[in-house]
Amino acid sequence: MASVASPVIFKEFCPLYYLLNAIPTKVQKGFRSVVVYLTALDTNGDYIAVGSSIGMLYLYCRHLNQMKKYNFEGKCESITFVKLLSCFDDLVAVGTASGRVAVFQLVSSLPGRNKQLRRFDVAGIHKSSITALAWSPNGMKLFSGDDKGKIVYSALDLDQGICNSSLVLEEPSSIVQLDYNQKVLLVSTLQRTLLFYTEEKSVKQVGTQPRK
Q1: How far is CA 101 from CA 39, 128, 195, 198, 203, in A?
Q2: Residue 66, SS3 per DSSP
Q3: Does residue 46 fall inside a structural domain?
Q4: What is the Cα–Cα distance from 61 to 95, expressed in whole angstroms?
Q5: Choosing a second label site near 138 at 20 to 30 A (CA), which of 3, 40, 153, 159?
Q6: Which domain holds residue 91?
Q7: Which residue in 117, 202, 125, 118 sits closest to 164, CA to CA?
Q8: Model's pTM, two decimal places?
Q9: What is the pLDDT of residue 1?
């Protein structure tokens, strides 16, 4: 006798006012007041990361109920993508409208974990807006894609504080999504979806018809 499926219950969740109230709606830039727009979001069990139009990353720790702020040095520009990762250390990758990509290695109170905030920069390969970021599960690889179709691979050595980046793929249309697992990078663009095998550096298209 077939079991009866339990009914689906819809729930309405209220806005996270404790989070939103910790982010200013306006900031002062010289003599003018600038409205702050929220432009990017990612979450995991430990953090809620929110990117903004003023180049500020707001990182809310869900266990400590604390909000911290991180920014890029120099020109303030809109954050377009954020990607969290919890592995041995907590990492967050951030991409901006001009193509800057940075990785923040967060401080942890746990024994044996990172005790000093560190930042790694993906140097000058992207020249346009970052549209996708993807981590390897161990935090040693970061892939970034932009709206001109460039995909950059960054190898991170957190112990040595080194980040080496190189262009691995260039598509004729904007990158809209990246996902990485077991030496295979899944890439979606405005025109097609493909599998990029990182060891062989070969490409296999998913499906035969281009997107319209």
Answers
A1: 15, 11, 23, 21, 25
A2: strand
A3: yes
A4: 20
A5: 40
A6: 31-175
A7: 125
A8: 0.87
A9: 53
Q: Please tell me the total count of domains within the chain.
A: 1
- By three-state DSSP, how is residue 108 classified? coil
CB count, 10 Å around CB of 209? 6
pLDDT, position 115: 64
d(CA 139, CA 136): 5
Whole-angstrom CA distances from 102 to 72, 85, 153, 199 are 8, 14, 13, 25
Report the percent of the chain where pLDDT is more than 90: 63
Helices (H), the chain: 17-20
Question: Looking at residue 61, which CATH number applies to its domain?
Answer: 2.130.10.10
The residues facing 203 across adjacent strands are 196
Would you say the C-alpha torsion 202, 187, 121, 96 has a positive or negative sign? positive
Residue 8 is assigned to a structural domain of this protein: no
> In Å, how far from its chain's centre is CA 151?
14
The answer, yes or no, to whether residue 171 has pLDDT greater than 80, is: yes
In this structure, the number of other CB atoms found within 10 A of the CB of residue 155 comes to: 13
How far apart, in whole angstroms, are the C-alpha atoms of residue 112 and residue 120? 21
**16-48 burial, b if ≥16 CB within 10 A, otherwise e?**
eeeeeebeeeeeeeeeeeeeeeebbebeeebbb
Domain-embedded: residue 9: no
| Strand 118-122 versus strand 101-105 pairing type | antiparallel
Task: Look over the chain and give the mean of its residue pLDDT values, rounded to a whole number.
Answer: 89
Please indicate, yes or no, if residue 58 is contained in any of the structural domains: yes
